[in-house]
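Input C-alpha cells:
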C-alpha cells in the first residue's frame, strides 16, 4: 500500500494505511471471538507511524479577504466560508446543516450530521466524525449573515414557485433546498478562489486551523476549543496544535518574565506593594 496501493498504482497516505489496518484488525478480531479463526494475523502487522506536520493557519487578513471575495462572486459561498472560519466545523458538517439546526434567537448552531460522497458519487448523510452532537455559539455578525442567507434562499424558492422549510438544507443548489451541496464542490470553488487571489498555500481545511489557533491564542480553554471543533477530547486538540501551543508557551514565558522585571524595577524605585497584598488589593 505504501508503494502502489493508491489510484493508478500510486502510494497511499500513511493515515489511510493505518485506517485500513484498523478495520482489518477489528474484523479479524471478531472472527477470533466467533471461533472462526485461532488468531488475528493483523495484530502482528506494524502499520507506519503518522508524522504530524506543524499546523500552519492563515492570518486573519487572509481569511477576511477570502470571505469577502467569495461573497462578491457567490454570496452563498461567502456564508459557507464565514461559518467555517468562525465555528471550525468540517466541510461535510456544514453541508449537512438544516435550517432547524440554526437557532437565531440563541445565536447558535447544532452540528449533528455530516455529508460525504458515496462510492458511486451519491451523497450520504451520516453521523459526525466523533459520532457526537454539539451546539456551537455564533457571533452576532455570523447570525446576521445567516439571516440574510435564509432570506435569499426563501426569495429564490418563491421565484421558483416553491418554499424553504425548516428541514431544508442551509446550502443547496435546489430551489427548495431539499438536497445538500457536495463537499467537493466547495473545495473546488475554494481552490479556484485562492489561486485567483495568489494564496496557493491555503487550503479550505485551514479555516478550521484558523479558528482553533486564534481561540487558543486568545486564552480560550483547550476543552472549550475542543468542544467547538468536535474533536474527541482535549488531548486530541493538544496533539494537533502542540507546535502552536509551544509557541504560545514561549510568549507566556516572556510575559511572566516581563512581569517580574517590572516588579523589580518598581521595587528599586521604592514602589513596593505591602507584603502579602496582590496588585489588585486582594490579600492572598
Amino acid at each position: 500500500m505504501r508503494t502502489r496501493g493508491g489510484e493508478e498504482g500510486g502510494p497511499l497516505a500513511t493515515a489511510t494505511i493505518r485506517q485500513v489496518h484498523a478495520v482489518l484488525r477489528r474484523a479479524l478480531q471478531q472472527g477470533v471471538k466467533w471461533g472462526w479463526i485461532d488468531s488475528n494475523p493483523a495484530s502482528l502487522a506494524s502499520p507506519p507511524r503518522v508524522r504530524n506536520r506543524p499546523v500552519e493557519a492563515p492570518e486573519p487578513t487572509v481569511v477576511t479577504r477570502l470571505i469577502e471575495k467569495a461573497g462578491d462572486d457567490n454570496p452563498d459561498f461567502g456564508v459557507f466560508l464565514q461559518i467555517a472560519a468562525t465555528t471550525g466545523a468540517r466541510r461535510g458538517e456544514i453541508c449537512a446543516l438544516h435550517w432547524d439546526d440554526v437557532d437565531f434567537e440563541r445565536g447558535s448552531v447544532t452540528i449533528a450530521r455530516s455529508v460525504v460522497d458515496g462510492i458511486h458519487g451519491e451523497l450520504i448523510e451520516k453521523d459526525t466524525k466523533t459520532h457526537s452532537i454539539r451546539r456551537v455559539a455564533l457571533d452576532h455578525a455570523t447570525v446576521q449573515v445567516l439571516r440574510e442567507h435564509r432570506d435569499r434562499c426563501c426569495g429564490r424558492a418563491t421565484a421558483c414557485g416553491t418554499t424553504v422549510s425548516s428541514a431544508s438544507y442551509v446550502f443547496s443548489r435546489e430551489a427548495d433546498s431539499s438536497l445538500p451541496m457536495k463537499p467537493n464542490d466547495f473545495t473546488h470553488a475554494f481552490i479556484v478562489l485562492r489561486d485567483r487571489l495568489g494564496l496557493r498555500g491555503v487550503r479550505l481545511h485551514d479555516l478550521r486551523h484558523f479558528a482553533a489557533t486564534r481561540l487558543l491564542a486568545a486564552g480560550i480553554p483547550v476543552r472549550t476549543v475542543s468542544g467547538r471543533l468536535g474533536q474527541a477530547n482535549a488531548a486530541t486538540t493538544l496533539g494537533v496544535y502542540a507546535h502552536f501551543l509551544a509557541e504560545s508557551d514561549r510568549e507566556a514565558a516572556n510575559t511572566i518574565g516581563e512581569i517580574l522585571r517590572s516588579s523589580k524595577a518598581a521595587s528599586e524605585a521604592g514602589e513596593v506593594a505591602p507584603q502579602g497584598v496582590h496588585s489588585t488589593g486582594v490579600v492572598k
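Residues 242-268 form the longest helix (27 residues). Confidence is low (pLDDT under 50) at residues 277-284.
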